[in-house]
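Below is how a single chain appears once it has passed through the pipeline. First comes the sequence as given, then the structure the pipeline wrote out for it. We keep one example in the README because the format questions we get most often are answered faster by looking than by reading.
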Amino acid sequence: MHGQLLLLGVPGTELTPQDAALYQLIQPGGFVIFGRNVESPEQVRKLTDDLRGICDIDPVIAIDQEGGRVTRTKEIGTTPPSAQELRVKGNLGLIARHGLITADLLRLLGCNMDLCPVLDISYDDEADNALRGRCYGTDSQEVITNAGIFNRNLRHAKVLSCGKHFPSCGLADIDPHHELPKVDKTIDQMLTSDLLPYTTLMPELDAIMSCHVHFSNIDHDSPGLPGSLSQNLLTNLLRNQLGFEGVIMTDDLDMGAIVNTYGRGPDVKLAITAGNDMAMICHQIDSSTLALDHLKRIPTNVIDDSLRRIENMKKRISSPLKFSRKEWDAIDADTMQLRIDVLGKDAAKKKSDNSSVRNSPVEDY
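Resulting structure:
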């Protein structure tokens, strides 16, 4: 059962015998689909069906389908507008449509969780912290309003959501894909700003993703400790003080902010004992056997608590929609109309959007 605490990436566009053997051994709690796994709608659906087929327990099949630069299906379909473009347009009805369209598209592909909404506040729309174009607001209330609308409609159409990146990546000045950002804000300061989207939307989120940022005034006794490995942030703050009862998952542990310092195995053990329920390994997938070995060294009561939360979340997983190319084309047409309504006809016809400055690997995965 320990494998249920792992979310694993998939190497390619099909499930090879080697992949299948590894996943059957691990029996992970779920998978994360990236652009490297996407070749055609039919192929993605076969891949997700095959992944479900090798799991004894229905897996989470997650994807980062935010819109804009973080759109894993951009090579096979229309790219939806980004969170920033939607907030600049200022029409809540269009954000609601985005949530519904996204859910239908994901269920057609066999995905059951969207790793969003982004709940970070954009303090600087041009900051080089991997969030360019991805934030629903420049203050907490704007994030709550816009991300809340998207989240409600995504879940209404039966796709699980995951708010990210707790407690805040918006404060970061560098990209955690490369190295560990450091932030000096205290908990009291964040309770009146960065944490408000979480405290407000928490009852409506299926999961929350922890971030790879060091908070020096919170973990002052552990210099360089990422928030994703922080008991102070995840257990003491998010669980005990804020009262979140859902699943907490790490961001990808293969990011530079983690792999530059922690070895595979110890990172997973630290993540779970800090308060995460699921550890995400998206790229170094062969290392998941080592991760599983370290999970077995964690006290049983910790594992059992995480298994209970994961099981409760999985009760809300909905079956995929019946796939048809006709339905895919209809959803793609709806996405293009959404682009037109948000960006205008001329801008909508351009393949890239205004947020696609390529300075982070987040859009290339």
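The first strand starts at residue 6 and ends at 9.

See the next section for the split statistics.
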